[in-house]
Amino acid sequence: MARRRHRRSASHLVSGMVVVGLLVGTGAVAASAVSVRRDIGVSTRPSTATVTTMAGSVHRGSASPKRPAALVQAGDSKTACISGEPGTSDLRQAELATHMTFNCIVTYTDSAPNWADWMYSWITIKGYSPFVAWVAADPAVHQLVDTQNLIPNSERNNPKWTAQCAAGDYNTYATRFAKNMVAAGFGYSVIRLGHEMNGTWENDDLGTTVAEWHQWAQCFTQEVKAMRAVRGAHFLFDWNVNGRYRDIPLADYYPGNAYVNIIGISQYDESGYYLPPVGSAARWKALVSEPMGLDEVYAFARQHDKPLSVPEWATVVSLGDDGNYVTHMGEYYASHDIAYQAWFNVGHDNIVLLNSGAPHSVAAYVRTIARAVAKSAAK
User: Fold this and answer.
1) Domains of the chain, start order
2) pTM of this prediction?
3) Of 268, 261, 272, whose CA–CA distance to 239 is shortest?
4) Does residue 60 surpass a pLDDT of 60?
């Protein structure tokens, strides 16, 4: 089983209620109560941004016409990200252990119970979300990566959702979501839209037929077009598969180069296939060369002239503090075209936290990831 965490999102971390007025299609839903809740720990690391090494702060990354140079780019920007929230203990511990300042944070709005929550996600609520003030404090450096499903949970049992979305029926919702993101100061966000679609745990997975796979891709296209049309929206869209799960041909659900900026893979130190034991020299080779593994997805990205991302990766508690895996991941990151990567730094889901409690993983991270970021920044 190549599945790992099940994260939160607006739904399961209930923290409060926000009353907002919604406009859905042509029908007004006045002062609708939208429950919002915040995920406990999902951040991402320095975007092409500031990496504090022993020598100090460095910036790097190739700029596009509209994006500040220190943010994640649709190229080999080598941004180091981490899951979490600004100001949390887990994030501080990771920064202390790695001697890095994480200016890129991956968060999750992927469990919205209904369209209201989907459009008015918890991260956009000023005074409630820690991200609004964090991005506003340094918008040219602080990078938000948001994980957003194509639909809310209320549509999961709708057998026609892929067809309806592919026809553009949900574009109004996508437009409102984008407007709220821009209004919150998140116009330069990376959006992992419909992430891990080849899995079976998300409410917007691919389905089981070729027709559904094609409709899923068209749905992605429709929502991207609607979001991009919003004034002030300079989003990058990350098409993020789950590694080593349901070996469905990538081309059958790829939306097309015009609608994808980055191709991503969630890649943990585990597999649904047999792997040699931890510490074995053959383990890494087996891991990356599996069907739907890192090498296959990277080759697909290069075929389409897109950079790779690894929005979720980490060692697994049940496998121990596997510094060998981290070393190989860091070396891969340094030697390939990668827009960003993010350690899934949460204290649950059988994931090792990036702190002093995992000395081998931390040492390997500093030796490879931090060095690659600093080297890229010096270019």
Assistant:
1) 14-377 (3.20.20.80)
2) 0.85
3) 261
4) no
